[in-house]
Amino acid sequence: MSFLFKTSVLRALYIIFIILIVLCVRYGYKMIFTTPPGFPVNKNFTVEENESLRNVSLRLEKEHYIYSALWFRVWVSSTGRDRHIQLGGYLFDRPRVLGFIVKKFVSGNPDTPLISVTIPEGSTTHEVAALVNKVLPTINIDKFEIKVYRASAEGKLFPSTYFLLPSMTDVRIVDLMVQTFEKKYLEAFDSVPAPLQLKSEEEIISLAAILEGEAKTREDMRIVSGILLKRMSLNMPLQVDVAPETYRIKGLPIVPISNPGLVALDAVFNPIDTEYLYYLTGKDGTMHYAKTFAEHKLNINKYLK
User: Fold this and answer.
1) pLDDT in tens, 118-138
2) How far apart are CA 67 and CA 60, in angstroms?
3) What is the crossing angle of helices 125-135 and 141-150, to 10°?
4) Beta bridge partner(s), residue 281
5) Of 190, 221, 255, 297, which residue has the fewest beta carbons closer than 10 angstroms?
6) 45 — phi, psi (to 5°)?
7) What are the residues whose beta carbons fall under 8 Å from the beta carbon of 23, sequence distance 6 or more?
8) Cβ-proximal residues to 254 (8 Å cutoff; 6+ apart), any chain
């Protein structure tokens, strides 16, 4: 009885083992030699700046290029070229199996190379639009500016180098720049308290935009930030040359005058408190500070005339 029982158990285990082998073979065959339903044909799959292999693989699975993000990552890693996937657009003229897709991505030759555009700190919306138009003539400058206005994105076109597809629309480009701003802003300042004089993110950006035009070095930006915040506390007009309306009204411009970078934004959060209330940039580019308006007038005569 004991022998028969052991034999039955072994037979059952053997059958289970065979079934598992068959299932694994079928699963592996499906992963490697078949294509998912809804495989996107002749549709750009874009690998963007700073995108990880994990994120690329998850998007490929979600968009039905492959069955398994994990299998894709393992295969790419096995080639030793997991850091060689190039930015750009990848096209497939018909459904392709996993091996072909891996080979295409590690080849380093995207079907549509990305076009780079660099946005300097302190660029206005019009200047950003012109820079984008220069590398992508299909983007209309006026329409780009309208998209920025409608998206309330003034000041949030983050200064950086972007890699764009020739097929990108103005809406997609604006979204990309704003998303980059939100990511960088959150990483740098999420836990940093803003000055009490500033009531919103828009006001923080607006002051940073002024600093981009009024000062050049990190230290001067922080000093000027302290001066302008002090003027706001004293209910004085800001009276900055880069924003003429601040001579007519008190407070910050209604919308940011440009798109500030991290250095200017950091100067807003970390102003240097001084006794100064006035400043100017001399003909030699050096900043000169004054405690009183009388001292400021002396600096004007000395450094600007």
Assistant:
1) 999 999 999 999 999 999 999
2) 8
3) 130
4) 287
5) 190
6) -105, 115
7) none
8) none
